[in-house]
Amino acid sequence: MLRTRLPELTTEMVQAIRREVHGYRQPIGSAVARDLAEAVRLAATQFTDLVEEPDAPQHHYVPRFRRLGRLEYLSGRGMDGLQAAYRIGARVACRRYADVARDAALPGDIAVPLSEAVLTHIHAMAGESVAGFEEARAGAADDVLRSRRLLAARLLERRRDPLAEPLPDLARRAAWPLPERVRCVLLPASVKVAGLDADVLRLTRGDELHLVVPDERLLTVLQGTGAAVGPAVPLEEAWVSLHCARLARRLGRSSAEDHLSELHLLHGSPIGSLLADQVLEPLRALPPGKAERLTDTLDALLASTGRTAPEVAAALGIHPQTARNRLRQLAALYGDRLDDPAFRFDAQLALRSRSATRFSLP
Q: Where is the PucR-like N-terminal domain (predicted)?
């Protein structure tokens, strides 16, 4: 009776687990989703075997349940998510097995021993998975280094896995006291940095080397390495520091903290380009050289205090009369908009975005 219901039962169990355990809400077809479906099918099949033949050997199932625990460890998760999945599966199974018993006109009091059998089975499976988790942890080569790499990856994630091992526990295994603030550093993976303190976390991703630095004194050894250093940020925003370091590298800057406004403009460069096109539309019909000179003049005018020809001339290194001629041309092209605070703000933002994009590295 139970075996014929296995397909619909396993489907319902998988759906319930995916709905209630956030970490298992991965796309159908992903490795996590496949592992979950296989684990549920395995558990339901073994329970059915036990009901049909209580004395049949079950030892061949043990390695498979231990494998689930190893997968949790190797994925950087704790056991909480898998334990929750076992409990949810047991709840669905108890309800559905009771339905099967009722449909088969079995005595009503059979529900109690059936539920107890489900819970005993789940407890045994969970125990094997915990054993697999602990075996993987104990057998990992150089667990501290692995934990440090995993910790660096976790800190640099923008979206955290709710099933992941708690950060304090991971930091304890990595022997890395959690600081309040960190800086992130971006280097080419090919660069060999000597003298880095043991407190610096390292993570290589593709052609990049990422460092998570808890103490600014440790940055002195990076001089001359071509490193891009992100700003100091709260620990939970480490990814922001790395993001700033990457943008600083595009601008050819070594310190992101000294150029945050440029980085902000560069980050929104596609929108900034649209805004620049809009602001510079009146200059589009002009010859390129003349359009560029008037663009520079507009930028100098907007940056000046009194908006006078001598100020603009001094900023551009040209004769005041030349500045007056250019200002008259701008007035003819833009009219009253040059006196509109909203336009002036848009124009300054557009020109700064344009400048940041033009001088960024590919």
A: 2-153
